[in-house]
Write a structure and sequence with these properties.
- The structure is a homodimer.
- By secondary structure, the first copy, chain A, is of the alpha+beta class.
- The longest helix of chain A is centred in the C-terminal third of the chain and has 12 residues.
- The radius of gyration of chain A is 21 Å and the shape is globular.
- Chain A has five helices and 15 strands.
- The first copy, chain A, starts with a helix and ends in a 10-residue tail after the last helix.
- In chain A, the strands form four sheets. In chain A, strands 2, 5, 8, 9, 13, 14 and 15 form a seven-stranded mixed β-sheet that branches.
- The structure holds a DNA duplex.
DNA sequence: ATCTTTCCCACCTAGGTGTGAACC
DNA sequence: ATGGTTCACACCTAGGTGGGAAAG
């Protein structure tokens, strides 16, 4: 009876895989969340900070998925394709392509792959709520596994891959969203990007407050000391 | 080639399941980590705080596992068995059983089951590092899914279950550790338990510092104000 | 009165921000 | 000089501690 209770606990929300045959994903649909926010950044050319130890992305890549087989197992992967072979420069308030990159033979450079930490999991799990890639970290140095290595001042487009896990691995989906393109930077170039990041990223709230304070009065807050 | 790279990324560390037949777990071994620490608490009768919103356990239940099939899929579950039918009381510095509990018919009362968030996953995943149940929360009210409901002033013993997930669910392992027994309380009874919690739980460091400060000098720290 | 529970709190851990100076 | 990168830092988010007063 203990055994029974346990197995039923597993069964609720964690169904066993299909006994035979391939899963079917009919009408598979993958939708980018927060698309309006992404477009605000895209409109002025998005930038993402890269650091030695890895920096999260903002906005966060988030997708809602439907049409998977609830009882089959999938992994969600993210990788980053160079959007072009160019090195970009920010001059006079706009981004301009500055010649071909070094050794960027138009083919993919290897950025590594980020495996969503919920992987592997059942279709039911992936579909019950939006899948959030908030823990991806971008870096410009070789690092611990799981971080994405990108070249500063190059443009990238994130690609989402859904892979069926089981006796036969199959690539189920392979989508990307134009809205999420960005140029990797070690420091923000366009101050409008900085303003948007501060406005919408809760972790940058310190600077949002500072801005409000400055609107109301003088420039610098008093240094505090005991 | 893109496809190839992706699938090989999945394959490294995320092997596909066996094509046919049941997984074999020969010489399966489950070891409690931090056993010495657990025994320090056990020696003076461990207590765990329960709250309406759920309270984490300390020490944290952590096990290292070997002998699973690296390529098969398992889920790790935790539930909490009443260690006896008694309600306990702390009087004169020691715990005494105070008669049979209300409606505690010696059978299991239903505490709910905690599913380790890495579930389901491959044997290789569970074995590559100790499996930590630091996010389990104990509560005394019905709450969001995943929290463990216990009766205050009753004694419990955590039980770990490893379940094979796949075409056939099997209970692979069912172990518990005497060292991890505890009495659920809404406030600590034994001040020696409080002292141990403060000494070893990093989140209680505030009170460790206070203790040190008091040893060196006067009772109360100055109130800080700008 | 006594025992148990609840609530708010100061104080931590842990770690994600852009800044601005220093560095290369 | 110039442009890109690194680093320490103040300031947040998010949430885990036991204490102590208050309530039941």
């Amino acid at each position: 009876s203990c055994m029974l209770r346990l197995l039923s606990a597993v069964a609720s929300g964690l169904q066993a895989g299909r006994e035979k045959g391939d899963p079917t994903e009919r009408g598979l649909q993958v939708t980018l969340e927060d698309a309006e926010l992404w477009r605000k950044f895209q409109h002025i050319t998005n930038e993402m900070i890269v650091t030695k130890n890895g920096r999260r992305m903002f906005p966060v890549l988030k997708v809602s998925v439907s049409g998977l087989d609830p009882n089959s197992m999938y992994s969600f992967l993210l990788d980053f394709m160079p959007a072009d072979g160019c090195r970009w420069k920010f001059v006079n308030g706009e981004w301009v392509a500055a010649g071909r990159a070094e050794a960027c033979s138009e083919g993919r450079s290897h950025t590594g792959v980020y495996i969503h930490p919920d992987s592997p999991n059942f279709g039911a799990h992936w579909m019950k709520a939006a899948v959030t890639f908030n823990r991806v970290k971008l870096t410009n140095q070789v690092n611990e596994e799981g971080q994405i290595l990108v070249k500063s001042l190059h443009k990238y487009e994130p690609h989402l891959h859904i892979v069926s896990v089981g006796s036969r691995q199959r690539l189920v989906s392979n989508v990307s969203f134009q809205e999420t393109q960005f140029i990797a930077v070690t420091a923000y170039q366009n101050e409008e990007i900085t303003a948007l990041k501060i406005k919408y990223n809760p972790f940058a709230k310190a600077f949002l407050d500072a801005k409000h304070r400055n609107i109301g009065g003088q420039g610098l807050p008093e240094p505090k000391e005991a």
